[in-house]
Amino acid sequence: MGKFAKYLTAGSLALVGVGIGVGIVGTVGFNVAMEKTSSTEFCISCHEMAANPWQESLTKAHAQSRVGFTVSCADCHIPKAFIPKLKRKMAASREVWHHFLGTIDSPEKYDLHRQKMAESVWQAMQEDDSAACRVCHDAQKIGSTAAINTMHKQALGPGTTCITCHRGIAHDLPKQ
What pTM does this model have? Predict the structure, then answer.
């Protein structure tokens, strides 16, 4: 029985070691996949994203800032914190499904769904107090004139956030 206990211990340790190894490889692989699928290159690999929101974003202020910073798709559409990012990635599976269905595969189809897609993004931004905007913009310091500073101070009230006033800042507004 003493020899069996020795093998059981060695076997248990080997199993724990394999589990740790699989856990590390899985975690690293998962993080690499999360980062790759958060790149602008990945986002615009679907022709409907490249032809519609990406093209129109290139004409907007966020395409390149005055200081040379370019905003990526993920900067606005994928939260930085892990759990919200994971939730967003799971929700994105619906978007992949609609890609394969061809739901928005032409400019006409895209425009038919633009209002609903925009409202979904606006609602998420409203709910998280425009957290994506605040990564780069400090609401307390924004403004180059007294009038802008006054408006931003008023906008800091309850229920008001960046997206309340700045819809259309990165993409064309829906025609509806």
Answer: 0.75
